[in-house]
Amino acid sequence: MSKSWEEINARIASGDAVVLTAEEFADLAADEGVKSAASKVDVVTTGTFGPMCSSGAFFNFGHSDPPIKMQQITLNDVPASGGLAAVDTYLGVTEPSLSKGIEYGGAHVIEDLLRGKAVRLKAIGPGTDCYPRTEIETWIHLEDLNQAYFFNPRNAYQNYAVAVNSSDRTLYTYMGTLLARFGNATFCSAGALSPLLNDPTYRTIGVGTRCFVAGAPGYVAWEGTQHNPNQNRDDAGVPTAPAGTIAVIADLKKAKPEFFSAATMTNYGVSSFVGIGIPIPVLDEDIAATLALTDADLKATILDYAVASRSRPSLGQVTYQQLRSGTIEVEGKKVPAGPISSLAVARKIAAELKVWVAEGRFAIAPPLELLPQPGTQGFKPLEIRSEEAI
Amino acid sequence: MARRRLDLTFPPRQATQPITYHLVKDFDLTPNILRAQIQPGQEGRMLVEVVGPKEAIDAGVEFLHKEGVLVHPAASDICLEEETCVTCGLCTAVCKPRALALEAETMALVFDKDKCVYCEACVVACPRRAITLTF
Asked: Which of A118, A172, A245, A294 has the highest count of CB atoms within 10 angstroms of its CB?
């Protein structure tokens, strides 16, 4: 049994496509077998909603009169890049406010814009012949901007670590508060609903793939930063630790605040919950077999965040089913486990995307270019070198 | 009878004194320890609810001050703003009494206030700042 992209698209266009979420597809495959599920279903939708620090947006403010070449740009006192053309900027979600620190950052500015709030723009300029103004202070709304689009260099990590803390003190990390002496464990993946865990070798998700980004239709723009297809994989070929990533682009004006939420990780910094969903065509039984995997099949690696090193020792593996039960075992000790990404919102995203596809609003297309495949590249460290050693 | 929730911080040198013993024997108070972390030579913290006549509680608090224990009134209520919450579940990872939990089927956040010991761990952990205390 195999279906072509064109056949599936024709069924989407005519409104006859059978679309299920990854959880629904796994249930069907459990009842009827993978072969039967593969022949019945055309598209499976996925979703995830977790903190994704490598996110941000490009803005073009339009020109004031007289115009200014903006530098030292701030939005609600959060610095944005002045390193682009006169009135273009990039605001990263992790940038903290100059006055409020990590309690308000780039992510909060973007959420405020999405909620229709006015944001205070300040900048200075060098004063040139073509851009004579030397300072500006005004208020902007999202609708006032010429362009406002997400460009998130790394989203939807394919699997992630389970974080624990063996030390004697509480650690405040991007994985949340980690209590001393294995007091808790946190994890960050939608598991069986996660986009890239459902396409473990990037057969259908690649450059140009249409996807759901924070409520807006968007695209996979490129491989994400730190994309590491060479990560350890299980017998089904699914990574058991952080592996592939995607860079995504989407119109911020079409995004919704329920799928983009600012976050402050205490004593760590600012981040943002970003909703990502990707439809996966059921091309053949091979892809159906990975779409049918459940939380009981998918594993993550436990890492000790008390080791302040880029290579933390592994303390074993657990399945997402064990993590979802609320208790895992680490070094022979029962440890309470909690997620930092919302499965409830991930389900909402997969369900919303299902409607988009089923109603013919969201055609699928083969990748214009595949993401780097397993065996092609790994994850390089940064070595600290002196000038003399070069 | 009055009831008051106290958040006690013990400087390292006081951490081995039998404070609760004195609250019972000398002031006739009924202490209910909600949460405690006391280790020799380290700063300790205890969240305790005391029940007794108002004057006795005031005298007990005075005694604690004299012993060098820092006494803060503990939160009287804790509030989860559902509109701000994104149900990430991070608070459930720090909630020792499991007052905050994700409902197994829907993954919705459920807050059982009866189990809460007002330790404030969730207030600090919540990335949305959706959990607040009132005093």
From this structure: A245
